Amino acid sequence: MSTATVQGPAAQRAPRGRRLGGAVNTLPLVGPSVALLLIFSLVPLAATLYYSVIRYNLVNPMLHGFAGWSNYKFLLRDPTLYQSLWISVVLVGEVLILTVGGGAILASLFEANFPGRAVARVLVIAPFFVMPTVSALVWKNLLMNPVNGLIAFILRSLGLNAIDFFANWPLTSIVVIVAWQWLPFAFLILLTALQSLDEETREAALLDGAGPIRTFLHIELPHMGRAISVVVMMETIFLLGVFAEIYVTTAGGPGTQTTNLTFLIYQRALLAFNVGSASAAGVIAIILANILAMFLVRAIGKRLDEQ
Amino acid sequence: MSARRRVQPVAGTIAWLAALLMFFPIFWMVLASFKTEVVAVQTPPALFFHPTLQNYSDIFARADYLHVALNSIVISFGATALAIVIAVPAAFAMAFYPTLHTRGTLLWMLSTKMLPPVGVLVPIYLFAKDVDLLDTRILLVLLYMLMNLPIVVWMLFTFFRDTPKAIIEASRIDGADVRQTIFHVLLPLVMPGIASTALLNIILCWNEAFWSLNLTSHDAAPLTAFIATFSAPQGLFWAKLSAASTLAIAPILVFGWFSQRQLVRGLTFGAVK
Amino acid sequence: MMRVRQLLAGAALLAVSAGAASAATITIATVNNSQMVVMQKLSPEWEKQSGNHINWVVLEENVLRQKVTTDISTGAGQYDILTIGSYETPIWGKLGWLATEDNFPKSYNYNDVFASVRGALSVNGHLYAVPFYAESSFTYYRKDLFDAAGLKMPDHPKYSQQYGICLRGKPGWGENMAFVDTLVNTFGGEWFNMKWQPQLVSKAWHDAVTFYVDLMRRDGPPGASSNGFNENQALFSTGHCAMWIDATSGAGYIFDKTTSQVYDKTAFTAAPTEVTPNGSHWFWAWALAIPKTSHNIEAARSFLAWATSQQYIDLVGKTDGWTVVPPGTRMSTYANPEYIKAAPFAKTVEEAIQTADLSKPTMNPVPYTGIQYVAIPEFQAMGTQVGQLVAAALTGSTSVDDVLRQAQAAVQSTMEQAGYGQ
User: What is the pLDDT of residue A93?
Assistant: First the structure.
C-alpha cells in the first residue's frame, strides 16, 4: 500500500491522481480494512486448500489420509459440473439484466415527483426484506402452483391453461423469483447514485428539448455508469451463490436443469458430509469466480475509478 | 429542500404500478398469515375470508419471538455499524486519494467473497468451537462484519466518488485534518449513501441463512432460525410461515421506512458552500 | 387406577433424575413436525416434575439434520437431546457417538414398544435412541369417489390397479426416492447386490420407474415433479386426489376436521405390492437420542423416558386428542379403545409398521438395511442425485433408460470414492 503525499498546494510535481492540499497518509485509513480482510480470507483459504487434498468425511471417520488429487478428480469428472457452471452463468446473467435494467428504469421514474413517493419507494424495496427461503416458498406454493396458486387461478379465469412453471420453465421461474428479490438492491443503489446528478445538467437537457426517454438514456444512465458497474460486480458475487431458492423449489431438478455450482457443491459435498470434496469444490468455485470477475473487470472495470 | 420539480403524473403512475406489482407477493403473504391453513391453500384462492389471529398466537406460544428478534437486531446492526466505522476511512482514502493500487485493492476485497460458504463450514465451525464462541452473538457480529466489509467499502466508495472533490479540497485547504474533513464535511454530504449502504447491509445480515443457522443453537439464534422453525414441517404450514415471515420482516420494514427518508435530499451542490 | 400408575411412573422418573442433583438446563434439538410441537407444548409437565429447564431448538428437518450431524461429528456438544431418525441411529450408534438407553426403570416397559421399532434403533443389542413415533406408508383413498365409480378398493391392492393418484415427485432422498425405493423393492429390485454393486439398470428398476413415470403422466396432478409430502397432503386434503400413497403419519391431519376437507370421505388400505411384499411400505422412526458429549446425561435420560412413555401418550390423548398421539411405537396405544375409536386408521397403520421389516427390505438378499433408504452415510447425497434424475424422467425431459444409466454411473462413482466394494 503506498501513500499519496503532496507537499503543500503549490507543489508542481504531483503524482498520478489529483493534487489536494495537505499531506495525507492513506495507510492508516485503508489499513484496518485490508488487514482484517487479509486474515479473514487467508486463513479459511489455507484451511480449504488443506482439506481439499485429504480424505475427510464427518460421518465416516474410517476415511482418512492424503487424497492427492482424488477429490478434485471426483468433481471434475462429474458430467454435471460443466452443466452447472453454465446454469450458474445463465442464472446470473438473466438476473443481472432484469435487476439492473429494471432498477435503472425504476430509479429514473422515482426521481420524478409524485404523491406518495416515499411509500411507493418502500413498497419497491420490500422484496429484499424477505428471507430468500420464504420468498421462494411463497412464489412456489401460493403463486405459481398449477393447482392451488393464484397465477393458475388468474389464467384459468381467462380461459387459459395453468402453467406448470417448475416442470416446464424451471430455470426461468427461479430467475423470476431471484430477480424479484434483488431488484430492490439495484434500485436502491442506482436511486442513491442518481441523487447526485445535479439539477443544472438536467434542466439544460430539458431546455434542449430532450424528452424523458432521451434524458434517461443520455444523461441519467451515463451518470449511473459507475454505480451500475458496482451493482453488477456485487450482484454477480451474490448471485453465484444462489442456493435457497433452488433448494426450496426444484431441489436442482428436474434432472439437473436448475443445479448451479453452489447447489452442486451442497449436494456432492455437504449432503455427504464430505469435507474433502466440499473443500475441493470450494477451490474450484474460487478459480471460476475469479475468471468470471476478470471478464467483468475487462468489460466494465474501467468505469470503477474513472472520473 | 426537496420537491422542487412539478408533479409528473405519467412517471408517477408507472412508478406506482411497478411498486404495487413488486409488493403484491408480500401483500399476498401477509394476507395468508391471517387465514387458516386450509383456506390458505384452497382453490380458488381466497381474497375475502374470515381472518384469524390463530397463526400468530400459535407462533408466540411455540417460539420466543422477542428473544430471537433481539438477536437479529443486535447482530445485524452491530455488524453493520462496525463495518461502516472501518469502511468509511478506507472508502474516503480510495475515493479521494486513489493510488495505482486502489482498483486492485477493491477487486481483491471483492474476491474474498468468492469462497462459497459450504466449502468452509467445517473449518470455521471447528474454529468457533475451539474458541468457545459457538452460539454467541459476538461470533456472528464479527463474522458478518468481515463478510460484508468488501460490500460496504464498495458501496461507500461509489457514493463518495460522486461527491464533488471541490468541497473536500476546500476543506483541506482551509486546514482541516482528515478526521475533521470526514466528520464535518463529507459525512453530511453522503448521508443518503450511508443510509442506503446501512440499510442494504442490515438486510444482508438479517437474511443470512447459512452461518446463522449453523453457528447458533439457542442463545444467539436469530430470526432465520425462527423461520426454519416454521417452514416445511410435515403438514400444512404456509399460513403459519407467512405469519412468521411477517413477524420477521416487521422490524426492518420499520427501519427501512425511516432510513429511506434519508435518500431524498434534493441537494444542489452548488448551494452547499 | 390411572392416577396411581401415573404417580408411580412420576416417582420412578424422579428417581432416575435424582442423580442430577440441582436444576439442570438441557437443550433439545428437534424437528418441527406436529407431534414434536405437541411434545414441546406439554414439556412444562416434565419441567415441573423434575425441576429442570429445557431450551428448545426446533427446526425443519433438513436444517436440523445438517446442524445436528455437524455438531455431533465434531464433538461440539451443543445439544443434550437430539431427534434423529432410524437412518442415523444405527450409523451413529456404531460410531460410538450416542449414549445407550438400555436401563430405564421397569415402569417404562421396553416390551410394550414394538420389537421391530426397537430393533431399528439398536446396534448389537444396545438401544441407542428411544422411539418417539414411527410410521410406514400406506394408501389413502376417497371412499366417496370410489363408491360413485362403482369401485371397491381391495385390502391388498396391486399396483396394476391404480388411477387418479398423487405421488411424490420432488427430488430428494427422503422425498420422491422414499416412495420410488418402495416401488423398486416391491417390483423385486434393490439398490446394491451383496457385493455392493449398484443395480440401477436392472429390469426391476426399469419396470418400476417406467410404471411410476407412466402412471404420473397419465393420472397424476400437474406440478408433480415439485410435489413433496406437504404439497401432496395439501392436494389430497383439499380434495384433488382420488388416491395417495404416502406416510401413515399424515393420517391424523387428513382425518382432522379443522385441517382437511375430506376428513369424512377418506379410507385407508395397505400400500400396494407387485411382485413381492418385501419393502412395499417403508419404515421410519423419529427417536430421541443423547450424544455422549452431553453434560446432562441423567437429566436428558429422564426426559427421554418421560416423552416416550405410555403416560405421555395418555397425556396427549387427553389434552390434544387421540388422533395426534405419537403413533407406531407402543402396543398399548393400539390396545387402547379410546385410540381405536378416534383413529380408524389405527389398525391399518399398526399392521403396516409391524410388517415393515428393515432387515429384509428386498426380494433378493442385500448387504444393507433400510427400506426407503440405504443405511450408509453416502446415501443422502446419492439418493438425492438419483431423485433429481427420476424427476427429469417424470417431466419427460429425459427417457427412463437414459435416466437409469446416468443414475447407475453416478452411484458407481460415489461408491468408488467412498471405498466400497474394494
Answer: 95
CA A231 to chain C, closest CA, distance in angstroms equals 31
Which residues in chain A have their CB less than 8 angstroms from residue B28's CB? 138, 142-143, 150
User: Where exactly are the structural domains of chain B?
Assistant: 53-271
Which of chain A's residues have a Cβ under 8 Å away from the Cβ of B201? none
Q: Which helix (H) or strand (E) holds B257?
A: helix B238-260
Classify residue A13: in a domain, yes or no.
Answer: no
What residues pair up with B268 in beta bridges, in sequence order? none
| Residue range C395-416: mean pLDDT, rounded | 91
Shortest CB distance from C70 goes to which of A58, A140, A162?
A58
Residue written as cell 421514474? A109
Q: DSSP label at B181?
A: I
Distance of CA B117 to the CA centre of its chain: 19
Cα four-point dihedral sign A247, A250, A255, A256: negative
CB contact under 8 A, A59 and C69: yes
Q: Report the gap between the CA of A132 and the closest CA in chain C (Å).
A: 15
Question: Where are chain C's structural domains?
Answer: 2-135+284-343, 137-282+359-418
Q: Nearest Cβ partner of A185 from B200, B224, B231? A: B200
Number of structural domains in chain A: 1
Strand order in the sheet with C81-85: C53-59, C25-31, C81-85, C284-289, C130-135
Using the Cβ of A135 and the Cβ atoms of chain C, whether some distance falls under 8 Å is answered with no
Residue A267 is part of a domain; what is its CATH number?
1.10.3720.10
CA distance, residue B69 to nearest chain C CA (Å):
15
From A33, A115, A121, residue closest to B260, measured CB to CB: A121
Question: Tens of pLDDT along C153-184?
Answer: 777 777 765 447 899 988 889 899 999 999 99
User: Is residue A1 in a domain?
Assistant: no
- Beta-carbon separation of C259 and B38 below 8 A: yes
pLDDT tier for residue C294 given thresholds of 50, 70 and 90? very high
Contact A189 B9 (CB under 8 A): no
Side chain identity, residue C358: L
Q: What is the pLDDT of residue A304?
A: 66
Residues 6+ apart with CB under 8 A from C190: C184, C199, C204, C361, C362, C363, C364, C366
Contact A146 C223 (CB under 8 A): yes
Contact flag C377-A251 (C-beta cutoff 8 Å): no
> What is the architecture of the domain spanning C137-282+359-418?
3-Layer(aba) Sandwich (3.40)
A204 near B CB under 8 A: no
pLDDT tens sequence across A125-137: 999 999 999 999 8
Interface contact C197, partner A, CB < 8 A: no
Do residue C58 and residue B236 have CB atoms under 8 angstroms apart?
Answer: no
Whether the model clears a pTM of 0.90, i.e. scores above it, the answer is no
CATH number among 3.40.718.10, 3.40.190.10, 3.40.50.10540, 3.60.150.10, domain C2-135+284-343 = 3.40.190.10
Most confident of A37-46, B135-144, C57-66: B135-144
Name the grid cell of B133. 464462541
CATH number of B53-271: 1.10.3720.10
Q: Which of C32, C56, C78 sits opposite B233 (nearest CB)?
A: C32
Chain B CB contacts of A126 under 8 Å are 22-23, 26, 249, 253, 256
With H, G, I as helix, E, B as strand and everything else as coil, classify residue A90: helix
Provide the b/e sequence for C163-193 (b: ≥16 CB within 10 Å). ebbbbbbbbbbbbbbbbbbbbbbbbbbbbbb
**What local confidence, expressed as pLDDT, does residue C86 receive?**
94
Statement: residue C413 has pLDDT above 60 = yes
C-alpha distances (whole Å) from B47 to each of A150, A151, B22, B35, B103 are: 10, 13, 18, 10, 53
